[in-house]
Hints:
Radius of gyration: 23 Å
Number of strands: 27
Amino acid sequence: MRTILRAAGITLLALFVSGMAGGKPPAAGSGASQNSPPPLIDRELFFGDPEISSASLSPDGRYVAFLQPWKNTRNIYVKAVDEPFSAAHLLTTETKRPIPGFGWTWDSKYIAYFKDQDGDENFNLYVVEPGAAVSPGSSAPPSRDMTGVKGVRVVFYGVPRNEPDIVYIGLNDRDKAWHDLYRLRLSTGEKTLLHRNTERIVAWVFDLAGQLRLGIRKTESGDTQILRVDGDKLTEIYSCSVFEFCGPERFDKDGRRAYLLSNKGAENNLTSLYLLDPATGATELVDRDRQGKVDLNGAVFSEATDTLALTTYRDTRGIRRQFESQEFEPDFNWLRDHLAGQEFAASSRTRDEQKWLVTTFGDTEPGRIL
């Protein structure tokens, strides 16, 4: 059984007001008359920051990073896995705009995050080392702006696991409408132009070895085209109309085919999971909702073996899981039995998958992280 890290009682999202004892609304006639307006609910309870959110294990299993308000603004904190949340230390010191999110590099050396300038929505990429010393005169270690461009929005495309110092990003510094593809080295900040985007490319897909394999193009009519990359040549291999959905999920472990989400040509218009061969454009069905009711909600792959472990489907009864291998099924069954009546999801895992962070949630209580 893998280790489930527990931090019980850490509220992630407050959904109910204190006046609703037990999460139940006040009974009719218990307060004001029927002709008077209902009591006002403090908007902070719906739109305020949660106490702790977005907790994530480092790939090496040493740290847990999360978002928490600091001076009324959401910032990144980090703690050792065996420390209480109260022992966490601050990694960023934003006071004007909240940090929207973050991610670990595969070697756990850096936490990367995006930040704009005073709400201009031109996000740049920053990194901070979780174990670095606090800067003199500051409350946090130094963060480095990896792109250092003004009036330019950086987008993220991928991080190769075999080169954790590399990230692939897009910059619209040449053309505000479209992002050119760059390789960025985090240790030095060196940027290398890989592709000048003059073909309306909105995303790039790399295989697990970090090789550029596919491009995603949006046509002027809104259709989606999936293109094979052969050096500077782009060849269309699959497409769907503006009224359909299609998009690569990730490459298979052997690098020969890519997992594809698509509802193209589906009789019930439901999204299913396929394998797409970039060489020929041929597709093979992998999985769909066996009850024929809902779209595929997500596909979960093993970080340790790169195999498809399960697919998920959300309907009126909650999340349903269809296991593609026996790798995770005993663990999810154990969680189901010990979290009776609650929905749950594995929010992050270590590279060896021996430690998990599990989020629990339900209709009548705040979310928690275990």
